[in-house]
Amino acid sequence: MMLDSLQPGGVAARTELTPLRGVLFDLDGTLIDSAPDLAGAANELRAAHGLPPLPYEALRPMVGAGARGMLAVALDVTPAHADFERLRVDFLARYEQRMLQETAIFAAVQPMLQQLDELGLPWGIVTNKAERFALPVTAGLGLAAAARAVIGGDSTPHAKPHPAPLLEAARRMAVPAEQCVYVGDDERDIIAGRAAGMITVAAAWGYLGKGSAIEAWGADFIIDEPMSLLKCLRLA
């Protein structure tokens, strides 16, 4: 369902005039499938509280919302709950013990990244995952060695949907923000990308969450598989 020019005359229209010099990606749900390990940590936490495991299908959509989303679906706990912080720490500790057990790069992502490398187009990663998790995960999967920048949720004073992490990634890649593309599978990614003045691409193969429909996010492009990125940016 690749839709182009969702914002006629907007950021995407500048691809005709402004050379593309860099691509930035969200991590979970965009480059990697971390849902099995995050869901596993959530069910371990449920077991510790005497609760039966939830089906994977119930947990997967909320992976992009981080610990807050996982606790909401796993234990029906929100940040307003008195025990939220204690449970969040417990959940993250369990996740840290297994974060590379089943997590993998999406198969279709590898050839897309290879094409970007062959085109000499630098790429980087901007995630809300704290560096404590983002750095070992990207290193363990072989992404950190090829990425020109890896920005975590605590690498700058603000996390997405604030544009600061994207702007910092562009700075580290020595690429003007307006000559970058940001690809992500959550509405926050698109909000952040637009605020940073970047071309925005919504990854429909990702987790997507349970909020607004992907068509309502305001992305410049929606793509349903990674190699379509090259087509919609006229790189293939």
Automatic annotation (TrEMBL):
What EC number(s) are associated with this protein in UniProt? Answer: 3.1.3.18
* Similarity comment: family membership: Belongs to the HAD-like hydrolase superfamily. CbbY/CbbZ/Gph/YieH family.
Task: Kindly list the cofactors needed.
Answer: Mg(2+)
A Gene Ontology molecular function term for this protein is: phosphoglycolate phosphatase activity
Task: Enumerate the Pfam families for this protein.
Answer: Hydrolase (PF00702)
Catalysed reactions, as listed in the record: 2-phosphoglycolate + H2O = glycolate + phosphate
Keywords for this entry? Carbohydrate metabolism, Hydrolase, Magnesium, Metal-binding
- Write down what this protein is called: phosphoglycolate phosphatase
Q: Does the keyword Transmembrane apply?
A: no
Q: In what pathway does it function?
A: Organic acid metabolism; glycolate biosynthesis; glycolate from 2-phosphoglycolate: step 1/1
Q: Does the keyword Cytoplasm apply?
A: no
Q: Say which enzyme class the record assigns.
A: hydrolase
Which NCBIfam families does the UniProt entry name for this protein? HAD-SF-IA-v1, HAD-SF-IA-v3, PGP_bact
- Database matches in InterPro entries: HAD-like_hydrolase_sf (IPR050155), HAD-like_sf (IPR036412), HAD-SF_hydro_IA (IPR006439), HAD_sf (IPR023214), PGP-like_dom2 (IPR023198), PGPase_prok (IPR037512)
